[in-house]
Specification:
Number of strands: 14
Shape: elongated
Structural class: alpha+beta
Helix content: 25-40%
Strand content: 15-25%
Order of helices and strands: EEEEEHEEEHHHHEEHEEEHHHHHEH
Mean pLDDT: 91
Number of helices: 12
Length: 384
């Protein structure tokens, strides 16, 4: 199961989401390692392999599900030991089924549990033995390690599901000599009817203030030098080097970039040189040799937030450009900084994230929602 363990790899310039789980690799001795599973069906078990190749690795014992007593095992740079009375519930078939489910989950497709519950719905709508058999087969297709979680009910676990697919007179795997009674079956049916009622009421019972993910396509704010004023700059207006003079503490800076790098140094001469640089690129260069302010690394994100607020407050036309991006993710290029830029997915994209923050504040203002101004903001009326 995926849980909260999400990672990705880059392939052909795109991010492929994935997750990981512990596993043992047998390469002479046994090694505890991470098994990475990706949405495109590739699995990294000390090398990327396809699902079919992974199955071969399982069958050959390279990915180990059998752990012999006394075998030597290690976790790299952590510890080494020997197995003593090991027990594992995994088999090659079971691990492969779990991996297939994981790939479905990473792609947002129904996994074996989803398919089982869909078959149960079909049976409850039309209670024929044929439909029950289909639901029973779908239940047994769920990896055994995951069946307890199928209903998301850790009090009853999968008990009602087992009874429903067995039917009156049928047998549960854990109680092969005790047939399911009519009373037990009726209780299971009532459970699923109540469950359907809960599911139908959930949207009205759980408040929602909007989607968790953006509805608009992501917008890539590509790096471009030099930028010049334009009547229709498009999203280039969102770049920090776009000409948009800022009044900060009595000084006017040609761009956000000029202001940011000027404020990064306490040296008055360097600050003036940065402010007066012909281009944003030159401003960055002028600041390169100047000493940074003490504590700048910790303060810089707050400073940039204040400068972006000032830019879009002092330039309403540019604020309109930002608002027109709706709720799109803003991916900001910065070839010099993995803090400010996305850098092909390796960076933190703080500029893009702060632009989204300021956009949300502008949207709140449009909606008539009054927000207390942060002390550092003041729309350029004081030094950030």
């Amino acid at each position: 199961m995926i849980g909260n363990r999400i990672t990705y790899r880059t392939a052909d310039g795109r991010r492929v989401p994935g997750t990981w789980r512990p596993a043992f690799i047998r390469n002479g001795d046994y090694f505890l390692t991470d098994l990475f599973v990706y949405a495109d069906g590739l699995i990294d078990c000390w090398g990327l392999v396809t699902l079919e190749e992974f199955e071969e690795k399982l069958r050959s014992g390279w990915v180990a599900t059998r752990l012999p007593d006394g075998a030597r095992v290690s976790a790299h740079n952590l510890a080494a030991w020997k197995f003593s009375e090991p027990y594992t519930w995994l088999t090659p078939e079971l691990l492969l089924a779990e991996i297939r489910d994981t790939i479905d989950q990473l792609n947002g497709r129904p996994d074996s549990t989803d398919r089982c519950l869909a078959a149960v719905d079909v049976f409850l709508a039309d209670r024929t033995e044929e439909n029950r058999a289909a639901a029973r087969a779908a239940y047994h297709a769920i990896p055994e390690t995951q069946r307890h979680y199928a209903l998301g009910d850790m009090d009853r676990k999968d008990g009602p599901l087992q009874v429903l697919v067995a039917g009156p007179g049928g047998h549960l795997e854990a109680l092969p000599d005790e047939p399911v009674t009519q009373e037990e079956y009726d209780e299971a049916v009532a459970y699923f009817e109540d469950r359907a009622k809960w599911s139908s009421e959930r949207p009205s019972r759980v408040p929602s203030d909007g989607p968790a993910t953006p509805m608009a396509p992501a917008i890539h704010l590509y790096e471009s030098y030099p930028l010049k004023p334009s009547d229709d700059p498009g999203t280039k207006a969102l770049r920090n080097e776009f000409p948009a003079p800022l009044l900060i503490d009595g000084d006017t800076y040609p761009t956000v970039t000029h202001a940011y790098w000027a404020l990064s140094t306490a040296d008055p001469g360097a600050r003036a040189a940065v402010r007066d640089a012909d281009t944003a690129f030159a401003a960055r260069g002028a600041a390169a040799g100047a000493p940074r302010r003490e504590g700048w690394e910790q303060a810089r994100t707050a400073v940039m937030t204040s400068l972006l607020r000032a830019k879009f407050t002092q330039h309403p036309a540019l604020a309109r450009v930002l608002l027109d991006t709706a709720d799109a993710t803003l991916v900001y290029d910065d070839s010099d900084s993995e803090h400010w830029g996305n850098r092909g997915g390796r960076g933190r994209n703080w500029t893009g994230r702060l632009l989204e923050l300021v956009r949300s504040e502008l949207q709140a203002e449009q909606a008539g929602i009054t927000l207390a101004a942060p002390r550092a903001q003041q729309a350029g009326q004081g030094t950030p």
